[in-house]
Design brief:
The protein has four domains: 92 residues, SRP54, nucleotide-binding domain (Four Helix Bundle (Hemerythrin (Met), subunit A)), CATH 1.20.120; 183 residues, P-loop containing nucleotide triphosphate hydrolases (Rossmann fold); 138 residues, Orthogonal Bundle (434 Repressor (Amino-terminal Domain)), CATH 1.10.260.30; 32 residues, no CATH class. Helix content is 57%, strand content 9%. Strand 4, helix 6 and strand 5 form a beta-alpha-beta unit. The longest helix is centred in the last third of the chain and has 25 residues. The strands form two sheets. Strands 5-4-6-3-7-8-9-10 form an eight-stranded mixed beta sheet, sandwiched between helices. A two-stranded antiparallel sheet has the order 1-2. It is globular and about 80 Å long. It is built from 22 helices and ten strands. Helix 2 packs antiparallel against helix 3 and helix 7 runs parallel beside helix 8. By secondary structure, the chain is of the alpha/beta class. The two termini are 53 Å apart.
Length: 511
């Protein structure tokens, strides 16, 4: 997601590297990179022109000076000033935001509209889960009678959530919606979510049907669900739906796919309607309120720590997290704790997406190979840990070579892989215990703060990247195979001898 835009803004910053001030000439090179990336990212051309002009006006102002915590003056570089201008303009283009829903009706009605395949049915389930968490009692309405799969999907989602789904075979969508609202009122359901039909493209029959549903049930909320992957077509389609239905806001879906992100920048500016939610993935808890500040930070490679913490809070009990953190910083981390943390991360989404939202790391992702964020590696790691006994998971220090051999047989991995995982685990535990000691030492903390204030944070993070136990920052290094210099016949013979020796060791370990 957003990689085209992020790469363009990063290239723009590189154009200003080493410059002492911003001028018409040097900022022109940077803005060309920005303009190209916005166009490639499917941002509307009108929005691109206005954006570039506004950034230019902001950036050509006087270079400002900031006060450091110790009272000294820090001169902001032209690069920093340019990034700040881009950030401010990105936030202005996508905001102001309004993520509220009108839930005052009896019942309140949310009507989801959009083209076929935009993600309306999944979004209906996500909204229902969100409302359940807020104490509401939603009802889902399967008004897409032309696509049986949509009705079946909504039924499955309803069963998973424990939410009733209203559907009557053969009934017209308008009558179905009216009866569903009446039924919800009778059974004490306070929110009705209507999943309407879509088409591959806008047609008159579809629009008339949606207008009739709106006229009959008068929904307080009409949300246009749009697939971010369709690019500038999203803006044109949204404009026509808005003209006919006057919807209240957008739900932008599939931002975890190959979306270039341009719709998020264009859609608010062109239609004047706010983006209310972002949908990613099929999991029902992956619907987040839209924050232009967070998306702007992610586009600029600055991460989105606020959004990341909000996601974390949804999946973790605060008291439990504090207890776990205390245990980690005391060096009492076990493999059971490790499994718990990995499962939490998995619930929050793909590893690469999580890392993209972390400050400093988000801007380095294009330098890190894809395999460093392979979620299958997490499965392999969990398989190794699950092959340990309960005692070994709780007391990692009891592990030794014969246990490594048994664990390797149990999970189908090589002994070297099990040993390497254990070494990284022990070193990461030691590193976190050292950090815990530093947090309790005022002098050490003062030195760390001084290093950060003097700009040494990047060097510090660069050093940490190579340390064991810091996943994702450095791809695993491939060892040189000693057989590379041998002939084919010699390689085959040596590998046969190794295989026989390994079988012999395993037999001894089993005895």
């Amino acid at each position: 997601m957003l990689e085209v835009l992020t790469r363009g803004f990063k290239n723009a910053q590189l154009k200003l590297q080493g410059k002492t001030r911003l001028t018409e000439e040097n900022i022109g090179d940077a803005l060309r990179e920005v303009r190209t990336s916005l166009i490639q990212g499917d941002v509307s051309i009108g929005v691109v022109r206005a954006f570039v002009e506004q950034v230019k006006q902001r950036a050509l102002g006087e270079i400002v000076h900031l006060k450091a915590p110790d009272g000294s003056t820090i001169r902001v570089t032209p690069q920093d000033h340019f990034v700040k201008a881009c950030y401010d303009e990105l936030v202005d283009v996508m905001g102001p935001v309004d993520t509220s829903l009108d839930l005052e009706g009896d019942p309140a009605i949310i009507m989801l509209v959009g083209l076929q395949g935009s993600g309306k049915t999944t979004t209906a389930g996500k909204l229902a889960k969100r409302l359940l968490g807020e104490g509401h009692k939603p009802m889902l309405v399967a008004a897409d009678i032309y696509r049986p799969a949509a009705i079946d999907q909504l039924m499955v989602l309803g069963r998973k959530l424990g939410v009733p789904v209203f559907s009557i075979q053969g009934m017209k969508p308008v009558d179905l919606a009216k009866m569903a609202v009446s039924q919800a009122r009778n059974v004490g359901r306070d929110v009705v979510i209507i999943d309407t039909a879509g088409r591959l493209a806008i047609d008159e029959t579809l629009m008339e049907e949606l207008e009739q549903i709106k006229a009959e049930v008068t929904p307080q909320n009409i949300l246009f669900v749009v697939d971010a992957m369709i690019g500038q077509d999203a803006v044109r389609t949204a404009a026509e739906f808005d003209r006919r239905l006057d919807f209240g806001g957008f739900v932008l879906t599939k931002l975890d796919g190959d979306a270039r992100g341009g719709a998020a920048l264009s859609i608010k500016q062109v239609t004047g309607k706010p983006v209310k939610f972002l949908g990613q993935g099929e999991e029902l808890d992956r619907l987040e309120e839209f924050r232009p500040e967070g998306l702007a930070q992610r586009i600029l490679g600055m991460g989105d720590v606020v959004g990341l913490m909000q996601d974390f809070e949804k999946h973790v009990d605060q008291e439990e997290a504090e207890a776990d953190a205390k245990k980690i910083l005391q060096g009492k981390f076990t493999y059971d704790d490790f499994i718990k943390q990995m499962k939490t991360i998995r619930r929050m989404g793909p590893l690469r997406e999580i890392m993209a939202r972390m400050p400093l790391i988000g801007g380095m992702l294009d330098q890190i190979p894809e395999e460093a964020f392979d979620d299958r590696e997490m499965d392999r790691t969990l398989a190794i840990i699950h092959s340990m006994t309960r005692q070994e998971r709780r007391e990692p220090d009891v592990l030794e070579p014969s246990r490594f051999r048994r664990i390797a047989r149990g999970c189908g991995r090589e002994v070297d892989e099990v040993e390497a995982l254990h070494d990284r685990f022990l070193q990461a535990r030691e590193m976190m215990a050292g950090l815990g000691g530093m947090l309790g030492n005022p002098q050490a903390m003062a030195g760390l703060q001084k290093q950060m204030a003097s700009g040494g944070l990047g060097e510090m993070m660069g050093g940490m990247a190579g340390m064991p136990g810091m996943p994702g920052l450095e791809p695993p290094k491939k060892k040189k195979d000693p057989d590379d210099d041998l002939s084919v016949e010699e390689k085959i013979a040596r590998r046969k001898r190794r295989k026989a020796a390994r079988k012999k060791r395993n037999r001894k370990g089993g005895d």
